[in-house]
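Re: [help] complex structure
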Amino acid sequence: MTNLKLNKPTDSEMEILQILWEEGPSTVREVHQILSAIKESGYTTTLKLMQIMHDKGMLSRNDEAKTHIYSALIKKESVQKQAVGNMIKGLFKGSSAKLVMHALGNHRASREEIDEIKKYLDEIEFSGMNEKKKNQKK
Amino acid sequence: MTNLKLNKPTDSEMEILQILWEEGPSTVREVHQILSAIKESGYTTTLKLMQIMHDKGMLSRNDEAKTHIYSALIKKESVQKQAVGNMIKGLFKGSSAKLVMHALGNHRASREEIDEIKKYLDEIEFSGMNEKKKNQKK
DNA sequence: TTGCATCTACGAAACTCTTCGTACATTCGA
DNA sequence: TCGAATGTACGAAGAGTTTCGTAGATGCAA
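Output below.
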């Protein structure tokens, strides 16, 4: 239960986290390069943001060499969990099913994905049952 | 396609919107009462927030009487859509299926809800097909 | 070795959001 | 009618975020 990120990342911090999750440990220059493709900003702006994130404990940093290398300290999964949880609680009256149907309704999934979800639903629907009951249901 | 809320609501604004969505048109006093159950804050703080939201075009206001009555101008559905869309894009690599399975995995749904989702999946899986194909698949 | 390119550190400005105090208007009961 | 209760308007402080310029350190190529 480490990974304490008490305050949720800002939008700018999220952009940087996403790059680090995707690319792994990176220099400020590398992050800034990728960021530049999306939005214009000065190099020292990215630097400052990453320094602050380091101060906040969101990023770790290897500063043996002149050029420091940063890594994400907070896990993508924990941010996902937090974000999805807040959304369900705040916007979908605590019902994950409401969120699920809203998501599927507005963002089409492929046939393969839909079948995968169905399989997953079977798993969780019958989890906790013994084998006999599972077969009965089938 | 009105309902232009270019900048997404802040957390404080979301709290007020949720109350107005739930309660319908309300006075500042009413909103503040409900808000007080969740967090402590001064009456004029709530007033100011709602005035600013009105300036931003998020709320409409009837000021015929001394005590004004505010209503949400932006639709819950549009905020949901925006929020879910951003989350899928930013945290789930654009895959609604990933979000769905994450949500179901971390926030248990009831048997009834799961069945409802399955039915919904059938609908969208076969939408776009003609009746003949649907029956073949069955 | 020297000088240029690159990097970090840091301060400060510009913004936004949140909070609340104060001033003034309106309503209503005694 | 008068005063208390209740309402709105508004200014400004304080906190957090984002932006960038500048100074100084470091590495590398000529």
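Residues 10, 12, 41-45, 48-49, 52, 66 of chain B lie near DNA strand C (CB under 10 Å from a C1').
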